[in-house]
Write a structure and sequence with these properties.
By secondary structure, the chain is mainly α. Helix content is about 80%, strand content about 0%. Helix 3 packs antiparallel against helix 4, helix 4 packs across helix 10 and helix 10 packs antiparallel against helix 11. The longest helix is centred in the N-terminal third of the chain and has 31 residues. It is globular. The two termini are about 25 Å apart. It is a multi-pass membrane protein. Keywords: Cell membrane, Membrane, Transmembrane, Transmembrane helix, Transport. GO terms for molecular function: ABC-type transporter activity.
Amino acid sequence: MLRIIWKMTLRRLNPLLKNPIAIIISMFQSIIWLVLFGNLFSGVTKMSGFEYNSYIAYMLPSIIIMNALFIGIYLGLGTISDLQSGVLQRFLVAPIGRLSIILSDLLYLITLQFIQSVILILISFLMGVRLPFGFWGALLYIIVPIIFAMAVGSLSISTALVTKKHEPMINVMQFCSLPLMFLSSAFMPQELMPKWISWISRINPVDWTISLERAVTSSYESLGWMPYAVVLLVFVTVSVGFCTYSFNLYRHSI
């Protein structure tokens, strides 16, 4: 099974291995947000109630998670391409477990998110950001977004199996991506938000993930991060389970 998963993962990774610059191009938006907006809104740190000395340091976990959100959402486009080319149908009738198909896509997602998280952390380091707890802080900034990306990627695959076409999938992506970011504490603490946005952010998975990273790196001994960790783990478990269920439904429909 592991051999099959690895070979199917390489099928996704090969285009990136042949053209590594595509890794940078695919995260260009995240880099722009970090560099441009991080400097553009640096004056926010002077506002009363803003606890960070550097707005770039405040934004970094948000940008890494935004990158994970985009990678996860775009994962479904690969599934649609496989559907339209007949590749997925051949996989489903072959002696390959449905879980292997899902895990290979998620392993590709994990690899890409890991590389791009490291790049974003290095860029922020060059901009003067120093992570709490050094190496362990960097590891946290990599692992938590990967877990979140797995949840989003699973939901994206499920959506692709329903829409079966690029256009509806792209519409769903555009509808979900930026609203999820702006209706969270990604760019502003909840205390400084309008009350209605602050309320919505509390039921936003993006905000759970960002809050988890910030809570652990600011006061890990208080265990205030535990509720966010539990909710995130439930979110990824339900998402992967729903993705498996969607594959079962699709397999019975062909």
